[in-house]
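Practice problem: predict the structure.
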Amino acid sequence: MMIAAVLPCYRVARHIEAVLRAIPPAFSRIVVVDDACPEGSGDVAAAVDDPRITVIRRPVNGGVGAAMADGYRAALALGADICVKIDGDGQMDPADAVRLTDPLAQGAADYAKGNRFRDFRALAAMPPVRLFGNSLLSFLVKAASGYWTIMDPTNGFTAIHRRVLEQIDLDRLDRGYFFECDLLSRLYLVDAVVLDVALPARYGDETSSLSVARAAGQFPAKLARAFLRRLVLRYFIQDFNMASVYLLLAVPMLGFGLVAGSWEWLRSVESGQVRSAGTVMLVAMPVILGLQLLLQAVAVDIAAVPKRKS
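Answer:
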């Protein structure tokens, strides 16, 4: 199978040459996307003496998602069967890529991604606040994407097979650092099998272009949109099953219980009178039943994670 490396490049001129020279012979093509890099990363890549290298130059900086969309298109046009995303800053060891491509070549998965959180040495060195933030983000991405078995969703070391990449509308992918999370949510809708692969990260003197504050402000709304899109498409358009029934019953019950409970609580505070047992039960029963039905819907959703059929 033809394997292509796709490298989005922005402010990585110091590292890109070493990364390119480390890419093993198993890669037939190397697509470097210069995302209007002010350091001229594309020029550095073009100067490397390797006939596998194709340099694409974007006239305007569009973000890692925009660069990867262009890179994927170019790799597909070159005939690639598997596309591996490798960042140009040297945090990923290209020699580890075979651990991502093997499951795809063997038909065990359609998309494989690195997972830094199975490396106990990396976990020990990670500040507790960052570890908690990554765990929380992983849980939110699980719910939004439907892939309940994956961790480290923003890991950029990934491999994707042509058969699912051609089913994704690359023009609709997020253009920024939400790219990996958005791609996961869209892979679910084409029943792609996703596999986590334990891969350590390498940290050096590279400078990240990701603004943590900006990501924290943008990710929640984007995750909510991805979650609602998946919910509507999977359970009310592409299919209608017991999870659909559970959701149709759970949401009105919870809504009624929460609104009625809040109203009765306010009336109780204003009047100073305790609500009757009947009123409490009228509020509590829809909430309890709604939560039970919601948990049943989640159980069905977890069981529906795409798997390779034996």
